[in-house]
Amino acid sequence: MTTQIIIEGFNISKNYDSFKALDNINFFVKEGEIVGFLGPNGAGKTTLIKLITCTSFKTSGKLKVFGLDTEKDQKKIKALIGLVPQDNNFDPDFTVYENLLVFSRYFGIKRDEAEKRIQNLLNFVGLQNKRDEKVTDLSGGMKRKLIIARSLINDPELIILDEPTTGLDPQARRKIWEMIEDLKKNGKTIILTTHYMEEAEKLCDRIYIMDAGKIITWGNPKELIIKHIGTETIEIYNCEDVKLNEIKGKKIFFKDRIYIHTDNKKEALEMLTDICENIKFTVRPTNLEDLFIYLTGKELKE
Ligand SMILES: Nc1ncnc2c1ncn2[C@@H]1O[C@H](COP(=O)(O)OP(=O)(O)O)[C@@H](O)[C@H]1O
Ligand SMILES: [Mg+2]
């Protein structure tokens, strides 16, 4: 069985006047995957989501969503997608239930069917007790859950979540991660954007790492770490850098730390303790933040 490619983007650019918000990017999304776009603020993630969801148009390149043209088949594409936008855009005068009902009407869902779906979706996101509350009375985490429920009202094949957990506490974040994993188990295809490396590492089958409108690398999170820098990181707080060149592994000087990325922790540690006296360090698995710093010289978070 071959897995279908449902989104294909070739050489896509998006300019705002002379500013390149997206600069010649290539990507694809396969059916059933969770694909992440990981990058700091301003990387171009939301711009890309807007192109896929037909709310903004590319300057150049080719973009197919479900084999359809984003400039000609907007209605068909929108019917197949559920979107969780970066900013919650509810109608503040309405209750939880009313917000979902209004949305069901955009998709022409009949009232009886809409009632059933709303009930199921409120159960899915755990907001059944909040049905008749004003959305303005919900916590940040509940608002995000409601907007996930809203994105599912048309039973979309593809769900796109633009920074689903930004600003949420760890508990609310974990709940939303569980929901995303459940959606994948139910066969949905998922795209998410994030600047949280834990989120990308935990959820995504493949990630595209973005910075300043470009895709700098892509692949499975673990494989990217192995390919570029190695699975172990020695984080050093106080070693003089003079002798570090003798140590095997990739060395990065960043802020007040030195990082050695290696696949051979034992060898690197032996050399390190040989040449640096009273050294203070920790050893931990390499993560996507390390990879981002290695590739760009910057952190994901400001
Ligand atoms: N409508 C717009 N007009 C001009 N510049 C824009 C517009 N939308 C986004 N940008 C710029 O494009 C860049 C990418 O923005 P965005 O896609 O929102 O990034 P991200 O979602 O990764 O934080 C930013 O520098 C932003 O200021
Ligand atoms: Mg954004």
Describe the protein's architecture and organization:
The protein has 302 residues and is an alpha/beta fold. It folds into two domains: 221 residues, 3-Layer(aba) Sandwich (Rossmann fold); 56 residues, Alpha-Beta Plaits, CATH 3.30.70. A six-stranded mixed β-sheet has the order 6-7-8-3-9-10, with helices on both faces. It has a four-stranded antiparallel β-sheet with strand order 2-1-4-5, with helices on one face. It has a four-stranded antiparallel β-sheet with strand order 12-13-11-14, with helices on both faces. The longest helix is centred in the middle third of the chain and has 16 residues. The radius of gyration is 22 Å and the shape is globular. The model has no long low-confidence stretch (mean pLDDT 94). The structure holds adenosine-5'-diphosphate (ADP) and magnesium ion.
Write out the distinct hetero groups bound to the structure.
Answer: adenosine-5'-diphosphate, magnesium ion
Residue-averaged pLDDT, rounded? 94
Structural class: alpha/beta
Shape: globular
CATH superfamily of the largest domain: P-loop containing nucleotide triphosphate hydrolases
Tell me the count of domains: 2
Helix count from the secondary structure assignment: 10
SSE ordering: EEEHEEHEHHHEHEHEEHEEEHEH
> Architecture of the largest domain, according to CATH?
3-Layer(aba) Sandwich
| Oligomer designation | single chain
**Uncertain runs:** none
* Proportion in β-strands: 25-35%
